[in-house]
Structures are given as structure tokens and as C-alpha cells.
Amino acid sequence: YAAPTTMAVYSKTIRRGRVKRASARRRNQRDNPFGLPAATGIHKQALRMLHNTDRAVTRLARTSDTEALHDARVALRRLRSWLRDFEDILPLKRKQRRQLQKLAHASNPGRDLEVCLAWLDTALAGMDPRALASARQLATQLTRLRAKSQAQLLRRVPAEWQRLSPKLKHALADNKRTRDGGFLQAYLAALARDVE
Predict the structure, then answer these.
(1) Distance CA 89, CA 175 (A)
(2) What is the pTM (predicted TM-score) of this model?
């Protein structure tokens, strides 16, 4: 057995480093939609947002997570915006879009009550002592309403999302690859349509 020379070890290390860098480049290209054809990049991003919405709605079912309502609302809003901006490329039925819109709007009363309670909580600190009892009573009523709204939301949204999500995944999985411009051009065109 002959020990490898220093040059052979160095050469092997460099080759391994190149392989690692090359695989990292391929992984970045796979995760980065900007280098893809427009339709492919838009579909991949929609599927990624759909996955994020799945996770956020699943978290919403856990009542101990205080940020779950906010995260689910944000994920639904982002997904709806993306699907609306690229409706000419993303093959969804009108019924699916309406169901997504209803789901997004279902959380509005609960969020409004949270905002109201947060405002009232900050207002209590500098409130006139004569109005303090009434404000606390209002806070109690708003807290009850929020709990009722949250319970309805926890029953409704995850169940409806479980029915809608597979339909959206199926519709978005039908990725019809077309030869077109890059993702960046399509994204900029959608932004331009929104501005006009």
C-alpha cells in the first residue's frame, strides 16, 4: 500500500468541494423560481404557498398557538393574491377561488375583535376612572365574543380547508409547461397590471 501524495489528497478535496458547490447550485436553482420558465416558476411558487397555508391552518387547529390566527390569515391572503395575479396561468375554477375567498374572510370577525381588544387594553391605562368600569365591562363582552368567534373559526376553517386544499393541489399540479419568457418577466408583468 502506498500512501497518497499530498497533491492527490488536495486534488480529491478540491473535486469534492466542486461537487458540493455544484449540488448546492442545483439545489438553489431548483428552489429559486427566477431562473425557470414563467409558468413553471409560478406553479412552483403557488405550490409552495399552498404548503405554507396548509401548515398555518394546521397550526390554527391548535388553540395554544397565539399567532396561529394571524399566520393563517397571512398565508391565505398571500395565496389568494398570488392566484389572482396569475389567474391566466394558474388553472383554478371560479368555485375554488370563491371558496378560498370565503375561507380568508371567515377569520375577519375574530381578527377585528382581537384588534379591538388590543386597542381597549392600551386605552385602559389612561382612561378616566369614571369610564373605567364600563370599559372593563366592554372588554369582558368583547373577550366572550372573541372566544365564540375563535371556536367557530376553529371548527369551520380547518374542516373547509381540508376539503379545498386537495382540490387546489390537484389543479395546481397540472403544470402545463410552456416555452415562454422567464419567471421574472411574468412577475413584473403581473405587478404592472396591478399598478394600472
Answers:
(1) 9
(2) 0.66
